[in-house]
Amino acid sequence: MSTAHAPVATRTSYEEEFVHMMDDVDDLIDTLENPRHRKILINYRRHGLLEVSGRYEELLAPNMTVPHPHYRLFEGGQGTILDGMDTVRAFYQQLAAMDMLVMWTGKQKMAVHDWGFAGEAEFSQFVPGALLGDNVFDSMNNDPGAPSSSQYDADSFYLVRRTLAFFWPYDEDGKMIGEHVYEDTESKVVTKVGNDEVITGARAAELLAPIIDKYGVPQ
Predict the structure, then answer these.
(1) How far apart are the C-alpha atoms of 111 and 117, rounded to whole Å?
(2) 110 and 90 in contact (C-beta within 8 Å)?
């Protein structure tokens, strides 16, 4: 049973993309008859929307994620390995503190089975020029005030779009074990945007609140 509420009016084309990021997943969920596969994709959908809304504690709850998650994130030829709940939580906390949890998917293609799901999608994210390098995750540790030879304006924001392949394993109860994410480096496109076009964490939470509970908590 849907518990969705009236949508929030979008202000920009990026916000329109943002609120429709899970449309492809919704279409797939609605065709599934296998309850385990359906539960896995509802978990993924809810996980993604909670994450970019800044509500990461809810996606790490025992009804969504195993006690010891393991993330493997590869971007720009470098890897970020997150092993264990404390490490994963700290990663989300760092992103939230920098207001860099806001990202969205598009053109999602995926296959789901008892082991989890795998697929490919275009990911979009607003990144401050001061933090923009080959690896968004790795550059989080850069000092924004340090001298830089970067081609990007440190005081501006950029929209980074790139294709990512991903594999998310799940346990027999339909809880997420982790994320394995791999970037297609040749697909990356970086575009300078106006500050008024950037979707903040607070705005993301407002936009997604009406659609997060469409399928409820996976049962």
Answers:
(1) 6
(2) no
